[in-house]
Specification:
Layout: E1 3-5, H1 12-23, E2 31-35, H2 41-47, E3 52-57, E4 68-72, E5 80-81, E6 89-90, H3 96-101, E7 115-119, H4 123-129, H5 136-146, E8 153-155, H6 162-173, E9 176-181, H7 185-193, E10 197-199, H8 205-208, H9 213-217, H10 224-236, E11 238-239, H11 241-245, H12 248-256
Parallel strand pairs: 1-2, 2-3, 7-8, 7-9, 9-10
Antiparallel strand pairs: 3-4, 4-11, 5-6
Length: 257
């Protein structure tokens, strides 16, 4: 049984990336491959019962369109090693791939009384890909209001233009105490820029903890060493299209996911 590709209908980019991933796959590779789920949601839900590969844009925003992340049977890689002696600790990485990205992990510089940036993701992702019912943004703002943070909340609307969103996020981080999101790359950006974050799901959740009144009042602030190791693991799990095609990605994934 070979790989089955489910590119988003009418999206050439989705087709291109799925094909590149399949081109470098070993003959024994199996499972369903997705880059996005719009228009193929039923297939995605069925694929969850077996093996699937989910591809999306890079974990780090400056590398969008250059690198693409991949996870097996998940939307994002779990940076924690869940088996053996290292249970609950960050996975190992040589750090070589992260070093190539040129990202500097900064000292903490958040302002305790600054803004709480609430950053939603697209409705399509939350409702279609996740199958999540309810309104995450409204629920999150309601919680923060109930905990007394109302005047400090700043909602950053979801933008399709990610370059603009990235530039504007950096402006908002200058006066931020905390970033709150579901699983957006904004939490990862905040972590290396020195701003605490709460990511309710996704890879960043490993370093940020859940959305609770206690965690908002006292955010986790991992050391530069921990944050760097976390980013190194993410860099190990995102690849160029050429690395998809020539099998580099597959050799890594088969050994480490």
């Amino acid at each position: 049984m070979a790989l089955t590709l489910y590119p988003v209908p009418g999206k050439e980019k989705s087709k291109l990336i799925c094909n590149a991933f399949a081109a470098g796959a070993p003959k024994h590779a199996t499972g369903a491959v997705f880059f996005g789920t719009e228009g193929v949601m039923q297939a995605f839900q069925r694929a969850k019962q077996g093996t699937f590969w989910y591809i999306d844009n890079a974990y780090t925003d400056p590398q969008r369109q250059l690198y693409f992340r991949v996870a097996k049977n998940a939307l994002q890689v779990d940076p924690l090693w869940r088996g053996g002696r290292l249970d609950g600790q960050l996975r190992y990485s040589t750090g070589e791939r992260f070093a190539r990205l040129g990202i500097t992990v900064k000292d903490w510089r958040h302002k305790p009384d600054g803004r709480i940036l609430v950053i939603p993701q697209s409705d399509d992702f939350m409702k279609s890909t996740l199958g999540r019912k309810g309104d995450w943004l409204r629920e999150t703002v309601d919680k923060l209001n109930a905990w007394g943070y109302g005047p400090r909340i700043r909602v950053r609307p979801w933008l399709r233009d990610k370059k603009t969103a990235y530039v504007e996020l950096h402006k908002d981080l200058d006066d931020a105490a905390l970033v709150v999101t579901w699983s957006s790359a904004s939490a990862i950006t905040a972590l290396y820029e020195g701003i605490p974050a709460i990511s309710e799901s996704g890879a960043a959740h490993a370093l940020t903890g859940p959305l609770t009144s206690e965690r908002v009042a006292q955010p986790l602030m991992p050391s530069i060493v921990e944050r760097t190791r976390f980013l190194e693991i993410l860099a190990d799990n995102q690849f160029t299209l050429e690395e998809f095609k020539n099998g580099v990605a597959w050799r890594w994934l088969e050994s480490n996911q």
